[in-house]
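Internal ticket #5521
Category: modeling
Description: The requester needs a full-assembly model to guide mutagenesis choices. All entity lines are attached below as received. Residue total reported by intake: 189.
Assigned to: D.W.
Attached entities:
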Amino acid sequence: MATIVHRNRKVDPVRVAVVCASHYGATRGIAERIGAELAVAGLDAQVFDAAEPPHAEAVAGFDAFVVGSAVYMGHWLKNATTFVRRYQPTLLEHPVWLFSSGPLGPDDAEADAESLVPAEIADFTKMVRPVEHRVFSGAIDPEALSLPHRMIRKFPGAAEKIPAGDFRDWPEIEAWAREIARTLVASPR
Ligand SMILES: Cc1cc2nc3c(=O)[nH]c(=O)nc-3n(C[C@H](O)[C@H](O)[C@H](O)COP(=O)(O)O)c2cc1C
């Protein structure tokens, strides 16, 4: 693990918690890629499932947070929203980045940016003042879907809006993680 030395003083690596909520693993994959990229940049990054977040004392030990969720019917998953609401005071005191994993289809993430932003983000922007919220294209394997999700996909027009496939843009995700790392390494703690 790379440590940063400032004026002959050894400084511990910046500790980043990457917390994600994922139904079928697509968002978890994005979170893990972000964590891996932050680690390559020399940060101490740990990835958590929002269903099993770090306990309160551990949360207080992180220098920065990346919080993301899959989007279903225009909303973040509950475990992710619970994490943000529960730790709002801590998050507000630290740099926070939010991401959503949702749109499917080759160009959907750029198609209509405003309408792709989940309902919670306006509130969260006020609550934790994130550096940024980013929408990433997601992935769906129709074979893996729960019965209720299969039913939703059967609604007229839904299958076109929720096409099968893996549309995650890894270079875009990695570039975002590197941007986060650059910001954190450059900013004093
Ligand atoms: C029933 C259903 C509803 C969905 N609703 C939305 C939505 O409202 N907005 C969106 O951007 N993506 C939506 N998606 C796409 C998922 O958010 C996307 O596939 C995501 O990457 C899944 O992540 P996960 O595997 O981590 O759960 C929906 C997918 C399904 C199956």
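Resolution: model delivered.
Comment from assignee: Residues 14-181 form a domain with the Rossmann fold fold (CATH 3.40.50.360).
Ticket closed.
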